[in-house]
Amino acid sequence: MTQVDFHFNAPDKLPYVCRFLRKVSGQGRRVGVLADQDTSHLLNQLLWNLNASDFVTHCLLADSPSLVEHSSVIFASNWDDLTALQQLDVFLNLNDLPPPNFDGIERLIEVVGPEERDKTSARQRWKHYSQLGFQINRYDLTSAKPN
What was the pLDDT predicted at 59? Predict the structure, then answer.
């Protein structure tokens, strides 16, 4: 069964996503990130700006197969292409809509910023995942200590 973790109230959503990706990558896990092209390119640049000691290997799914194979974070705008990789441990959805299917997906992360539009779409995704019977965990970042 798929486990869905919602990280609510991320004050600076994309910098938070970068820290999250750094943490998960540091644990030896590989992450597939579903995002539109603009967000993927922006995150790509933000990850390059991390400290050298915090470097996270990452690429776009459209990059060379060798680069995809050796990266811990892969960005894609197409869910089916991303989930076809098989060797990913965690998926991160940065879109307003839930992914279309969850075959073989054990863990999905949703990061939600403080903007009302982001919260509204997150509520719809939460409802969708609940109707599918997924285990859902809620993490409120307003009480979390900064990394």
Answer: 95
Helix-, strand-, coil-residue percentages of the chain, each rounded to 5: 40, 20, 40
Q: Which domains does the chain have, with CATH numbers?
A: 3-142 (3.40.50.10110)
Helix (H/G/I), strand (E/B), else coil: 96? coil
Structure pTM?
A: 0.93
DSSP label at 2?
-
Measured CA to CA, the distance from residue 115 to residue 13 in angstroms comes to 10
pLDDT confidence of residue 60: 95
Across the chain, which distance is largest between two alpha carbons, in Å? 43
pLDDT at site 113: 95
Residues in the chain, pLDDT under 70: 143-147
DSSP symbol at 63: S
How far apart, in whole angstroms, are the C-alpha atoms of residue 57 and residue 90? 15
C-alpha to C-alpha distance for 85 and 65, rounded to whole angstroms: 11
